[in-house]
Amino acid sequence: MANIVAIVGRPNVGKSTLFNRLVEERKAIEDNLSGVTRDRHYGHAQWSGKFFSVIDTGGYVTGSDDVFEKEIRKQVKLAIEEASVILFVVDCHDGLTGLDKEFANELRGTDKPIFIAANKADNMEKMLMANEFYALGMGVEQIYPITATSGSGIGDLLDQVVSCFSEEGEEDPDAGIPKIAILGRPNVGKSSFLNALLGNERSIVTDEAGTTRDAIHTRYKLYNKDFILTDTAGIRKKAKVKEDIEFYSVMRSLRTLEDSDVVIVMVDATRGLESQDVNLISLAIKNNKGLMIMVNKWDLIEKDHKTMQAFKDDMMEKLGENKWIPIIFTSALTKQRIFQAMELAMAVYENKNKKIATSKLNDKILPEIEKYPPPAYKGKYIKIKYITQLPTKNPVFAFFCNLPQYIKAPYTRYLENRMRENFDFQGVPIKLVYKKK
Ligand code: GDP
Ligand code: GDP
């Protein structure tokens, strides 16, 4: 079993403060000032060379209309099902409360290791209060006084927590799983798309009890394939003013883009490709991301058999040289082609990771070069001898030749086109480099 720590406890004891302290902060969004908050309740942490995941179970169940009792049960159930170690947080300021006892009762059923963290042990007096929690009767050898706000006491606690893990854990348990980001202007239909997609065959691996609307980084399974969807939907709902909305959707887009393998740029069919969309697309290309365009709200377009092609042609013209970007026409409302859209994103991911054998490359491309060799430069003949794909994360091809410096952009375009004709690199930026041989 993976190393997972679940934090449980009644509201306001400091669970989310502790969570934020434990998980890598770099991914958290700190934009509370604007009122745009997207709490994360699942993250990765590390202590003493062991990697583990942390779930703030409280984050998943508060804010509902549920009565406390039900809430407690839900938190504890989530923790027991998902975690290998349970961190039960109580509060030295308030001391032992009835709700704490109810948590203890619910937790008693499990054989998973439980640690009691007595939070807000800000000073000596409060630290002594921690002893009061032995009365919970959980059979723990020790209560750990901590201060989540300053971090004091957390090291001792973690030493014990990680000693329960038999394995080192994975640095990033999501490594190797496609990360797909859905970007686009507010109102193009990102949330609707997600809901349409996941409402059907839905299986969330890590976010079981979570509200999908709030998950910014959620692992899903569709047709037996794992993937991680990051979306920027939902931000709008919490932003206060319009300027914030635009600003934060751009900011989030940038971060999400950096953290993904494939970017789906969602465009509103009724508006066509707008300048922001084009900016996003160039940014994705610059960052070597897999890329596709999803023209949503296709149901709103009055169309005949020529409309789609006309739309495509128009977009292609705006995309200039980047005609390798696939375009799909969808409706999140009627669910038209929404699963094909995900399949296309997965295909783009495959293309991005494609490795082509040197022999195959040379068999296909050398004849194309012979047919149309690089133009001589200042009377010097340029001879490309062979081609090989470099072992890089994104497709890069090295063309070995006598005079690499004399090959110009138009010839590179010729080569790229031949490469794309012979091998499927739909949706993926490819790079050609020339090396001296
Ligand atoms: P949650 O509802 O259990 O997730 O609790 P929060 O993490 O939201 O914390 C509730 C309040 O307690 C916030 O105002 C925190 O700043 C405060 N708090 C959290 N940890 C500490 C601590 O170690 N000492 C003190 N004095 N306050 C804390
Ligand atoms: P987001 O801001 O990108 O997440 O956009 P939403 O998913 O919240 O959608 C914005 C509005 O567009 C909502 O009123 C949706 O019902 C509507 N909408 C989304 N997708 C479609 C679609 O494919 N067709 C139509 N006609 N409306 C849609």
Itemize the secondary structure elements and their pairings.
Elements: E1 4-8, H1 15-22, E2 42-47, E3 50-56, H2 57-61, H3 68-82, E4 85-91, H4 98-107, E5 114-119, H5 124-129, E6 143-145, H6 154-163, E7 179-184, H7 190-200, E8 218-222, E9 225-231, H8 235-238, H9 242-258, E10 262-268, H10 275-286, E11 290-296, H11 307-319, E12 327-329, H12 338-352, H13 358-371, E13 384-389, E14 396-401, H14 409-422, E15 431-436
Parallel strand pairs: 1-3, 1-4, 4-5, 5-6, 7-9, 7-10, 10-11, 11-12, 14-15
Antiparallel strand pairs: 2-3, 8-9, 13-14
The structure holds guanosine-5'-diphosphate (2 copies).
Summarize the structure.
The protein has 437 residues and is an alpha/beta fold. The protein is 35% helix and 20% strand.
